[in-house]
Design goal:
heterodimer, A: about 250 residues, alpha/beta, six-stranded mixed β-sheet, four-stranded antiparallel β-sheet, 9 helices, 10 strands, B: about 400 residues, mainly alpha, D-Maltodextrin-Binding Protein, domain 2, 2 domains, four-stranded mixed β-sheet, 4 strands, elongated
Chain lengths: ~250, ~400
Amino acid sequence: MLKPFLIAKNLHKSFNSRKAVDRVSFSIRKGEIFGLLGPNGAGKTTTIRILSTVLEPDRGDVIIGGYSIRRNPDAVRRLIGVCPQELALYEELSAIDNLVFFGRMVGLSGSEAKAQAVARLKLVGLTGRAKGRVDKFSGGMKRRVNLAVSLMGHPKLLFMDEPTVGIDPQSRNRIYRTIERLRDRGMTILYTTHYMEEANRLCDRVAIIDAGRIIAMDTPLALRSRIGPPEQVTLEDVFLKLTGRRLRD
Amino acid sequence: MIKPLLVALYEVRIYLRDRGDLAFSLLLPIVTFALMYGAFGGQDTFHGTAHVVNEDQGGAYSILLLERLEENDCLDVNLLSVQEANSKLDRADLLLILYIPHGFSDAVASGEQGQLVFKQRGNGGDEGQVVASIVRSVVDELAQEFQVHAQVSEALEGTGIGQEQIDVTVEQLIEEERQEPTVTVGEETLGGSADPVEAFLPTIVTMYVLFAITLTARVLVEERRRGTLERLLTTRIGVGQLFFGKFLAFCSRGFIQTLILLGLAYAVFQMFTPLSFIQALVIALVFIAAASGLGLLIASVARTEDQAVWIAVVFTMAMVLLGGTFFEIPEVGVMSVLSKISVNTYANDALKAVINEGSSLADVGMQLAVLAGVAVVALPLGRLLFKVLPGGR
């Protein structure tokens, strides 16, 4: 069995006495795609922000590639890439300019950044629009640039926070294919989404989080088997059974 | 060091790519300058037109009078025929016209009284009265010269010295007196320069730079809104490096705008020497650094765009008012003490000293030190506040 690449141990995070993340522990093996599913406000994004060193947990620690996010966040940042839920791009700049800039920020030289930017744009199917301004792009193209930026610097672990929100099936399919190619290359991925069929298709294991706590964690097949014959049960059925049908926002 | 430079470079690139922002920020100094020029350009001294009818055609003294009037920097001379002049007076197109009558030169040459006539409607108008006053002073000066000529000629009559020699010598002496008058009248303007451009340019430059604080104050909020701040925080750039990069970017941007404003002032008003221009740019650059540092200090505190803008506007207005931008701050009293907390005070004092008084950078060393100190303190303080305030790192 492969060694865990990420180990989250007993994470706590509160905002004004509201518990956003409560006793969260899990691990992700190298080369695994790990899904983090949960309703709105469940604590998915806060967990990713802690894992990616943006937020410091109130308690607990995360070890990534052998480095603690508390004691050695700089070393952790060398290993990770983040594809945030928002389109974190400079829209006035071209796609390639965005990639080169963030490539330089992760420590690549000018020529390395350019070479990687060209390769990443090819990976997400945007070679022909490399010099186009991002603010002229469609939502799907922006999402693909967002993903391409997060791959600059060859991260070992990629955090993807709802990377397919609000885009057309073609762009979504392209992102799925990109993720599958990244998995084939051995990249470890933590993936959050509201689309259960997406998690079912892509993730090796999923954790369902609600009210800041992980309430179930297993392979999609094993989770489906918990409530009925897996061929008749969807992951969405499991999700609704575990988290309830009450609206969250 | 490379990462802050890259942040600055990309910030400037974003600025250059945003054509609306670029046009606005570059046009603003030009518009400001145009307003200054419209308000003050060429109006620091009177300039009018003397409308003249010369009926003494070919007369030596009328020609001399016209030459003297044309030599006067405050006047243009417009020659009219009698018909034109009468018509314009009748229609009130002109309110005052100087008539040089037939026989004027002959009268003067023969020692009789030469008579000039002002024809005017009403009191001749404001400009007409000033023109009439200037013409009278020129005529008085000429009359005194004629008198000197006549008296010297009379005194030397019978000495065997030729009239031509007397005329040349007297003319030479009069010219010397005109070049270096025995009595001169100086001007001492209280409360700064008499030239409105010289008086206002330094304060407009500093006010302009200070308004850029509002842009700087929004920079981190914008990065937050775009999500790029969070993304940057997961890369290998330190927050201090990010701050320094933004600082360099806003210094560059402010410097470009100030260069345009001062460059136009140099080209159009010729109010600089090459040295004083460079000195003014150095002072502006140090002030821009202080303003950018203060902008980042506000940016590190503000969590929304509204907060950033309002804090910056209130801060800027306080600095502008206390810095003596719109009115002179008295040298003693409460306002004098309060003005010391405004960065504008130091920038205005330094720029005025260099532009208006010919001081050197060494003479304004204290002001430059205060401004540089503000920049040096504001930057790390902003970084510290960004770290300790909620949501920071």
